[in-house]
Design a protein that fits this description.
The protein is of the alpha+beta class and 345 residues long. It has helices spanning 2-16, 24-40, 44-54, 61-93, 121-140, 163-185, 235-242, 268-271, 295-305, 339-344; strands at 111-112, 115-120, 149-153, 158-162, 196-202, 206-213, 309-315, 319-327. The strands form 2 sheets. It has a 5-stranded mixed sheet. A 3-stranded antiparallel sheet has the order 1-2-4.
Length: 345
């Protein structure tokens, strides 16, 4: 916790001394400071999670989870502002920005900073499923039999959203489902394991993604603390695993295999987009077989921050249904906690 405090104190002291930006050069220097600060703060999430787990005997779980949720939401807002500024500056310096520039194909043409104007749920699910399969094969072996991901519903639906946030949520959900199905049916199942079914439903104000698997559901001892960052029967294991993850951006990069799977590589038109890895993606790493106990709580924080929701229904012995509701950006304000709560952390 003291490490996180010192980081934020240093960031405040650094930014308050920056002179007023009056020129492009001033802005470029400001962007260097922002980039350096963002890199330094990659250690915040794992350090926070470790601190929460270590404090579980000193504070009530409800209090530590409230603290974690409040701090993470305010962290998201700061990083979105910072990364949006960096992305807009990058666009300004791009050769395509100038009037006499050659009008060649720009993979980032549909981006306004970090906001992707034509986010497509079908493309995101397909891309995340390929990455999840790569992770599973790296952790369990190339011969591991993985479930198919079946898509149906409003597959042409598009909406504005921050792509890296949606990729992180969907990627974590698919990763959990694949791991559950493999553990239930065995790594070398002779037949095809039951598929993971994904339904996309578009409404005027939001998009709902339902993900259903037959991985046996969630054990009763884990279910009550499913959304907690620090409480649960496996918290000591999560603490040991967090020590092995010194940095975490909580972006799509955490769902990438360290060695690309030739059979599941992402097409160039997707991998070239700015937000696929996030601006800090290359600076973080996470072994694919580590369980941190943070995927679902973090995913819900992301979903709720943008006025969405994430709900899970488990049938022990059968499987899990997860409902992700995504509010189209521009319809609702970000869901920050009260200003007093933010100032308190």
């Amino acid at each position: 916790m003291s490490h996180v405090y010192e980081l934020y104190y240093k960031a405040f002291e650094t930014l308050r001394k920056v002179r007023e930006v009056r020129s492009v050069d001033d802005n470029d220097n400001f962007c260097k400071i922002i980039s350096q600060t963002l890199r330094e703060h990659l250690t915040v999430i794992p350090k926070l999670a470790m601190g929460i787990i270590e404090c579980q005997s000193l504070m009530k779980p409800e209090e530590t989870d409230k603290f974690m949720n409040t701090l993470l939401r305010s962290r998201i807002s700061r990083r979105v502002i910072a990364e949006q500024h960096l992305a807009l500056t990058e666009t300004f310096h791009s050769h395509r920005h100038f009037p006499d520039a050659k009008q060649d194909h720009d993979p980032n043409a549909d981006f306004v900073g970090e906001v992707f104007l034509r986010c497509n749920a079908k493309e995101v699910v397909e891309e995340c499923s390929q990455r999840a399969k790569s992770l599973a094969r790296e952790a369990l072996g190339r011969e591991c039999v993985l479930p198919e991901v079946k898509l149906e519903g409003h597959l042409d639906a598009t909406f504005p959203y921050i792509l890296s946030h949606l990729q992180y949520i969907v990627g974590e959900l698919l990763r959990n489902s694949m791991q559950a199905v493999v553990e239930r049916y065995g790594r070398f199942h002779t037949g095809k394991p039951p598929p993971i079914e994904v339904l996309v439903c578009e409404a005027p104000q939001h998009v709902i993604i339902r993900l259903s698997d037959r991985g046996g559901g969630i054990p009763k001892d884990i279910l009550p603390n499913l959304w907690s960052f620090g409480k649960g029967p496996r918290s000591h294991i999560h603490l040991e695993n967090l020590v092995q993850v010194p940095k975490m951006a909580a972006t799509m990069q955490e769902l990438k295999a360290s060695k690309p799977d030739i059979g599941t590589m992402v097409p160039d038109d997707l991998s070239d987009r700015r937000s696929v890895d996030g601006s800090l993606g290359s600076l973080t790493s996470r072994p694919p077989n580590l369980r941190l106990g943070m995927g679902l709580p973090m995913s819900r924080v992301y979903a709720e921050y943008w006025a969405g929701s994430l709900e899970l229904h488990s049938l022990e012995g059968y499987g899990v249904d997860v409902f992700l509701q995504i509010s189209k950006l521009g319809n609702k304000n970000e869901q920050l906690s009260t200003r007093a709560s933010i100032d308190a952390v």
